[in-house]
Amino acid sequence: MRITFLVRNIWGIGGTIKTTLNTAEALVDLGHDVTIASFVRHKAKSDFVIDPRINVVNLWDVRGTADGGDRLSLLERWQAKRPSFLDADKVNNQGESSRLLDMRVKKYLKQLDTDIAVGTQISVNLYMAAYGRPEAYAMVAQEHMYLDNYPPRLRKHIDARYAAMDAIVTITEADATAYRTAFPELVDKITCIPNSIPASAKAPSELTEPHIMTAGRLTGMKGFDILIKAFALIADEFPEWKVTIFGRGPNKKKLKALVGELGLDDRVELPGPVTPLDAEWAKASIAAVPSRFEPFGLVIVEAMAAGLPVVCSAVKHGPLEIIESEENGLLVEPKQPEALAEALARLMRDPGLRRRLAEGGRRTAKQYEPSKVVGLHVDLFNRVLARR
Q1: N or C terminus of the chain: which is more exposed, having fewer CB within 10 Å?
Q2: CATH class of the domain defined by 2-196+369-387
């Protein structure tokens, strides 16, 4: 079948981008024709490797014309300065959000020739509801956040528009339950399909390096300040250990300042983003995921696949569905540096515990490999097309 993923910007970095590429590649492996329509392109090279068998379409290349970006007409330059229909409620928080983006997405969706169109974010799904052609192709709304996270100004759009979708896909069972409760008339359209992550390309970590690692966007959501504070509580007891936090984001300066305030400049590193992370995981012995909230937690599964024991905040939704504490990782009370520090210290002291939890994590990670998850997508697409 012909499947088109609609993505805000495939050229960036993040869990939604990574899992979309994983799913697209697995679908291509099965012989399907896959396109990714990136609403925006802002640089020459993607942070992630894009399989050349996947067709990538860019609706608006915002790079300068000297770098291959789009040359805008006078009308388009005016449209680029006018608000999107989504801007009044701050639904589409892209810098490129504008009437021009609206027009480019509308034109693409009106001309799109595909069997299945898959939205990957609330604003993308709302564009599809507004401009898609349900008579021409099936429309699937993926939820990569979770319903309870949305304030009323966003919920009203979901309430009004999602009934137009042929399917609504959540990444956790807890969120699927929330959607079914909120939309009992749409129960038959709602299903859970978890994110996927490939098996690590490297041998599992030997778990002998005194190194704690994590990765993600440097925002308050990810709780890296909590990790830094937790490490400060036990740093003197474990002078040989260090922490590395991979990623980029708006909180980098704040995090660096916190590291300095706590006297950890030579113990905590923030080197920026690295993709893929397989080689870096192999150099670590513990993965820490101190999120304040976490829709899924792709980094949890990625660390498990690399053979690391994971310490994670016990927040809904993903961590509580992925981790069984003391079996394949450790769950700790959220937002509490002391609780995180205690769990990290347990693992730092006990190589046997690290190995036992890592083995459990590797078994768990196998359940999320693309080859295991892709069948759920195919089954859903076939059901949707059969209903039509």
Answers
A1: C
A2: alpha beta
